[in-house]
Write a structure and sequence with these properties.
By secondary structure, the protein is α/β, with parallel strands linked by helices. It has seven helices and five strands, in the order E-H-E-H-E-H-H-E-H-H-E-H. The chain has a single domain, classed as SGNH hydrolase (Rossmann fold, 3-Layer(aba) Sandwich).
Length: about 200
C-alpha cells in the first residue's frame, strides 16, 4: 500500500512569482520519493485556526501516514489591516496549536512541525520586534516535540537574520529555490533517520 504524506500550512510550501510549483519542497519531495504520495493542502495566508478547523476532515479524506505542518508566519507577521499587529497573539496561537496536537495524538499519526524561519534584521527594523515574535511562536511550535511522534525542524539552525537570503527570497520571509531544496532535504533526512519510509532517490 502506498504511504501518504499530508502537508498543511500557509504560503511557505507554495509557489511564489519567482518560484514555480516544481521548485517547491512538496514537489521536490514527491519527485525524490516517488513511492510516496505527497498531498499539499497549504493555502496562502492560512491561519493555524483554519488548519485546526479543517484537520479532522483532511485526516479522514487523505488518511495520511505522516502530517507535516508548516504554519506560523501568517499568524505572527505584523499586518496593516490589523494596525501593525499580528493576526493572532501568542496565547490564541498556543490554544489552536494544542488543539491540533490533541487531534494528531488521538489519530496516532507522526507529526513534523516546520519552524518559522527567521527574517532579516532589516525587516526587524521595519517591523520592530518581529524577530522576537517569531521566536515566541517557535517556542510554542516546538514545546511538544519529543522526536518520537512529534518532530520539530528548527529553521533558525540554517537561516540567520544577518544573512537570510541564502535560503529566503528578497521578501526575507519565503523560501527561494535553495530554501525549498534545503527543506526537502531536511524532511527526507528526518524520514530516513527515523525509518518511516525506505527512501528512493536522494
Amino acid at each position: 500500500m502506498t504511504k501518504k504524506i499530508l502537508i498543511m500550512g500557509a504560503s511557505m510550501p507554495l509557489p511564489r512569482p519567482a518560484i514555480k510549483v516544481a521548485s517547491t519542497y512538496p514537489a521536490l519531495l514527491q519527485k525524490t520519493l516517488p513511492h510516496i504520495k505527497v498531498t499539499n493542502t497549504a493555502k496562502y495566508s492560512q491561519s493555524i485556526k483554519r488548519i485546526y478547523q479543517t484537520l479532522p476532515s483532511q485526516l479522514s479524506s487523505y488518511q495520511p501516514d505522516i502530517v507535516i505542518m508548516h504554519v506560523g508566519l501568517a499568524d505572527c507577521w505584523p499586518r496593516e489591516k490589523f494596525n501593525g499587529k499580528s493576526r493572532l497573539d501568542v496565547a490564541s496561537f498556543t490554544d489552536y496549536y494544542e488543539k491540533i496536537i490533541k487531534l494528531i495524538q488521538a489519530s496516532d499519526i507522526p507529526l513534523i512541525i516546520v519552524g518559522i524561519s527567521p527574517t532579516s534584521k532589516k525587516m526587524n527594523r521595519k517591523h520592530p520586534n518581529v524577530l522576537k515574535q517569531i521566536t515566541l511562536f517557535n517556542r510554542v511550535l516546538k514545546k511538544d516535540a519529543d522526536q518520537n511522534k512529534i518532530f520539530f525542524i528548527d529553521m533558525s539552525t540554517y537561516i540567520h537574520s544577518n544573512a537570510p537570503n541564502k535560503y529566503l527570497l528578497p521578501d526575507d520571509q519565503h523560501f527561494n529555490k535553495a530554501g525549498h531544496i534545503l527543506m526537502s532535504k531536511l524532511i527526507r533526512e528526518l524520514l530516513n533517520n527515523h525509518h518511516f519510509f525506505s527512501e528512493s532517490g536522494s
